[in-house]
Design brief:
Number of domains: 3
Radius of gyration: 26 Å
Number of helices: 16
Largest sheet: 4 strands, parallel
Strand content: 5-15%
Shape: globular
Order of helices and strands: HHHHEHEHEHEHEEHHEEHHEHEHHH
Helix content: 40-55%
């Protein structure tokens, strides 16, 4: 199994080398950028390929991301292209006049590489996914423990086959059932299971206070040359920002300050928000906003905009603007005072409103919220006041969502946790994704979320209604 995975990793490198060669010779034939001999051109392609691989060390371009969304991979391709372009521009200075490109031709060269690398990686990803969907090339996982962390891991790898994992069973001293996963006995039988079953990895999901059992399991895996992973209590660690350092040979977990507590990160995020919003209003907004407003006015009675009280930074109440998507007579709460969440085929939604909600175009007026500073482009989605009052007493760490500005789109939304909340478990997952974003914010993750939002808009979101 590992051998097949290495072959596909080599293929990723080879496809990028091919993309660089095609980009250069396309530019050479189309724009006559080179006057060098064919052999020198080949040397230049080798230099470019070497630089691409060198910059990938810093951009982490070839890190395994098949379990992540492709929008993340596009961001890393873009980042690597920037580093690559800087180094190649310096090399071209010394290669003149053998390789002669104008600035415009050079930018075309970089853009063609970026586009080809994106396309080939997408094709490679889909090819890998097709192999995994056929039940091939996955790693066989054995779980040690059957607590909440194990249950979440098992549900996740079962739902998303392209992660490349298959749980063949589990061992645990107390629990014998785990959503249909095979039970192989108590923890002490781990060595026997490894001898009898083909196992690629063991995932240890025992509580943190079970140190002796964790160490014993890790020792057994080491003896049998099976990779062991330790999965901490999921909720405790996925929603906090932690770094691993060493003091001597001992690992130490550091709980870091929030990225957006740093003033320089706040400045970067705010400048980006304002610039992005102004560009939107001056380009797409100047066309889309009047058209949508006219369609709403022609198809239903009532105001064009819907204003709703929501909670923003530090629980401060803000007025959130949206295009009206429901009939004017719609009530936010039922007779019992409970907030009425929009459901599938909700009779309150107008004809044009259904289209706006499906495409997220009803959120466009919130760019005004971004400009005036009570929202961001990316952040936890703000909830209406009745929903906040209900969830704050039942959902763990719910109020921590409000320690940063709310956003038009967010990490939870692009990962499928948007729209109707059917169970408290759905809301908890949404909050966990929001806290993951808050503790691990970077400028690049904002770019990824925006890109994924655009992709969801193009292909449609099944949870948007």
């Amino acid at each position: 199994m590992k051998k097949n995975q290495r072959l596909y990793t080599v293929l990723r490198y080879a496809l990028d080398a091919l993309a660089i060669a095609i980009a250069f010779f396309y530019m050479q034939d189309s724009y006559h950028v080179s006057s060098a001999s064919t052999s020198f051109q080949a040397v230049f392609v080798v230099i470019c390929t070497s630089i691409w691989y060198f910059t990938s060390i810093y951009s982490k371009l070839y890190a395994e991301r098949r379990s992540n969304k492709f929008s993340e991979e596009i961001i890393f391709i873009f980042y690597n292209s920037i580093l690559f372009s800087i180094l190649i521009s310096a090399i071209l200075y010394f290669l003149q006049p053998n390789i002669n490109m104008s600035f415009l031709e050079y930018m075309r060269f970089i853009c063609v590489i970026f586009l080809l690398a994106t396309v080939t990686k997408y094709i490679h990803r889909k090819y890998i996914h097709s192999i995994l969907s056929q039940g091939k090339m996955y790693n066989k996982i054995l779980l040690v423990g059957a607590g909440p962390a194990a249950e979440y891991f098992y549900e996740t790898v079962n739902k998303y086959y392209y992660y490349g994992y298959k749980c063949i069973g589990f061992v645990d001293d107390e629990i014998t059932k785990l959503n249909g996963c095979n039970y192989y006995g108590k923890i002490k039988t781990l060595e026997h299971v490894l001898k009898q079953q083909e196992v690629d990895e063991v995932v240890i999901t025992l509580p943190n206070d079970s140190y002796s059992n964790i160490k014993a399991c890790a020792d057994v895996c080491e003896v049998h040359k099976v990779q062991a992973r330790i999965l901490p209590d999921a909720v405790k660690y996925t929603t906090s920002s932690m770094q691993v350092d060493n003091i001597g040979i001992m690992p130490v977990l550091n709980i870091s300050e929030l990225p957006l507590d740093k003033w320089e990160n706040k400045v970067v995020k705010r400048v980006f928000d304002v610039a992005f919003s102004l560009i939107f209003f001056c380009t797409l907004g100047i066309v889309l906003l009047p058209i949508i407003a006219l369609l709403i006015k022609l198809t239903s009675k009532g105001p064009v905009l819907f204003k709703q009280e929501r909670w923003g930074l530090n629980n401060v109440k803000i007025i959130c603007y949206k295009f009206r998507t429901m009939v004017r007579e719609s009530a936010e709460v039922d007779d019992d005072g409970k907030y009425q969440i929009t459901t599938k085929d909700d009779p309150r939604v107008t004809l044009i409103g259904g289209l706006l909600r499906k495409t997220n175009l009803d959120e466009l007026p919130q760019f005004w919220n971004v400009l005036i500073g009570n929202m961001s482009i990316v952040g936890p989605r703000p909830h209406p006041t009745p929903m906040n009052l209900e969830a704050m007493h039942t959902i763990e760490n719910y109020m921590l969502r409000h320690i940063v500005l709310p956003g038009i789109t967010g990490w939870a939304q692009v990962n499928g946790y948007r729209g109707e909340i059917k169970t408290p478990k759905d809301m908890q997952r949404r909050v966990d994704f929001d806290l993951y974003y808050i503790h691990r914010w970077t400028f690049w993750i904002d770019c990824q979320i925006i890109l994924q939002t655009v992709i969801n808009f193009i292909r449609g979101d099944q949870n948007a209604y």
